[in-house]
Batch of 4 targets.
Target 1
Amino acid sequence: MATTRKELKEQARDQLRGNWGWAVLLSFVGWLIVYILTDIENFFEKGEDIVYGIVRRFGNNAELMYLDKVRVNPFAWLITLVVSVAIGLITWGVIYTILHFRDNGTKENVLSGIFSPFTSSFKSNFLTYILYEIFLILWTWLLIIPGLIKAYSYAMTPYILLDMLDSGHEPTATEAISASRKLMDGHKMDLFIFDLSFIGWWLLGIISCGIGLLWINPYYRQAKANFYRSLAGDQFAK
């Protein structure tokens, strides 16, 4: 990989210059949707949503105790599965939107971009994501370290899948995953160090009560899109 981490970050800052408002909105809306879905899942699993749980723990209002009487949905596991897949595809939607922006400067409608895995080539997105998660879970069950290694091995899956779909190719459920594994052969440590280089930024975001993350997340994702394009070129977009 010829491009250095410093160059990838400089490219990201240049690409985001004048576009921070759109990038921050994309990141925030994506986070908000994930939060709402997680809240719904929490309600079906525990009989209370996240906000209610916080209020109940720190307040004494008896009227808030009504949810304690809610019987937990026996199909909570199914809700959890559906929500988990939805969150994963929404995350991929954010990645897709950023990669499109990185490649051609197009600032897609935020909601259209976030939900693009549901509205375009849903079958390929759904099946690839399901197998992607299954493989990671199985490797993690073996040991944490093999799971972490495979997480980096499969890290380029959504980027590759988008390139394949944009080129008009309808990949099999494992094609993008296998391509990511081959692409990352010899480069997993590069991505790991790339991630480590953002630790200071993440800490700064936490110290700022999460406010700084509104800018740090787009910066990181933009730089990671540059990492992918620098590594893969256009070999999957043909």
Target 2
Amino acid sequence: NVFSLLYRFPPPASCQPNGTSQEALQYEIKELKQKDLALDQETAQLLSEGYSLEELEQRISLLHEYNDIKDAGQTLLGKLAVIRGVTTKQRYPEYYDLELSD
């Protein structure tokens, strides 16, 4: 469950430079508790549908790997576009036969 929180939500403002007020921290704690409860409910639902915790963790791991590979590909496509003097948006349909949503 904590792993899911780290994957789905950015670090809290309290972990960012300059900190925040006590009131803001209390609000943030309340939000995180609500998200934790929602994730517990989602996990329980998936378990009731027959998924195992190991399978769910494996899927999350594979999603991280996919996103890392996709990010590397996006970076390369962006660098190639810069070399060609065009925008990445222009390169997708013209040279890669891809839609922007791909």
Target 3
Amino acid sequence: MHTPVEYLGLMALGLGAGVFGTLIGAGGGFVLMPLLIMLYPNDSAATLTAISLAVVFFNALSGSEAYALARRIDYRSALLFSAATLPGAVLGALNTQAVPRQTFDFVFGGAVLALAVFLAFRKAGPNSPNSPDGRPPAGGVTRCLTDAHGQTFTYTFNPALGVGLSLVVGYVSSFLGIGGGIIHVPLLVYLLHFPVHVATATSHLILAFMAFTGTLTHVLSGSFATGAHRTAALAIGVVAGAQIGARLSERVGGMAIVRLLAVGLAVLGVRIVLLALGWWN
């Protein structure tokens, strides 16, 4: 039996996850999952990932609306990469049901800790992977985007590489229940050379499509049956938090966002690995 106090706590948790997740373009799932693991140790990995993905969807939907007003979303890339994530999102959601809880926790913690280390030691690169003579690489396309404040972003990337990466992100993120932004944003920035603010905004729209697909798969498979009320409480918080996070992103520098992303990942990874090993109860 869930109490009113518990639901209020979940709303507050959702608010915090929405603010931080939207600020870094991650959707809040990486904040929610370790806390859900700690708060509900008797629930299956499938149930917790179903709750997290559903909340990520509401967060991403709210954040996308705010980023759309800021005109920082690369819509063509978002739609292309979203289509690539959908098959992986379905497969990842189905595979979660077959994995024991302790194994899931260990894989989850190790994956995000590795990404934190990558971000901590990776220096910022150029916004576009142009060759030394100034021409774009083979197969590359160039985008030019001007946001609501008049700031112009010009960048070049390989869409085929983006599609391949998105397929993998769709699977991994749906399997882990983190939505994917915390993986997709670094890939957009460091491998596809998106400007950080465009990457966080575009990632949010991709998240909305991907999280909805993963959530629907969980609903159809029955793993969402016991999580609807908790999801609703968390969703109320993240919808409000996403609006705050999107507006804060306009005042925070790109490298500061990446550093926040690395710190969040490191704390999360260590916490979950220790939990999986039985060293943190």
Target 4
Amino acid sequence: MEWKTVSKANDISQIREAVKRLDIHERDERGRTPLLIFITNRAPLEALKILLDHGAELEAADKLGDSPLKKAAKFQQKEAARLLLDYGAKLDSPGGILETAWNIARFKDLSLADMLLATKGAVRLTLTEEEDKTVDDILHDESREAVCRKIRQLPTAELLHAVVQRYNWDDGPEAMLAVFEHPACAEITKLDMYDLLEGDYWLELEEAPDPETQGYRKLALKLKPVIDAL
């Protein structure tokens, strides 16, 4: 009897026997504990509960750095994530927002990401119908000046984040500079801005021959310290 085989059996009686006979803290060649193996193999919730009730570690990470909650996010197992939270799994990471289950979930399942919204530094990713219209109104405005003005008037980090995610970067750097300067702009939004801007490219340019190029480089320079600090 070994944990990997037990995790695939979906036999609750076998799992109950395994927790009596096997080491609940055992690690496989990938550094995975039985709980991590069970989540990877999509074992039923009852199986996860048995492991947790017998002392399975909630924060033990494998060689990839995945905790059980991060593993549940990676494999889009919403109910498993909810169970882990009920048992006290931590949302935050010493490595910051980029090392959290929320950061994994936001690229996999927005509803799962929003379930992890209490993560420090996270922003809500699903918008209401009214919020969605507000973002569309900004992005469809042909006046760069008007777009910047509307961005400065936005009240929440969620709206600013959505604007960045949907922005056409061919429309110039002015609007994104307005987002960066907005007091409600979240650090994760600035990180995404740098990636979408391809900030390293602009910083490597020795010359900025025109105002628009200068604007992109200016934005990259403003964002770089924030990126380095994350």
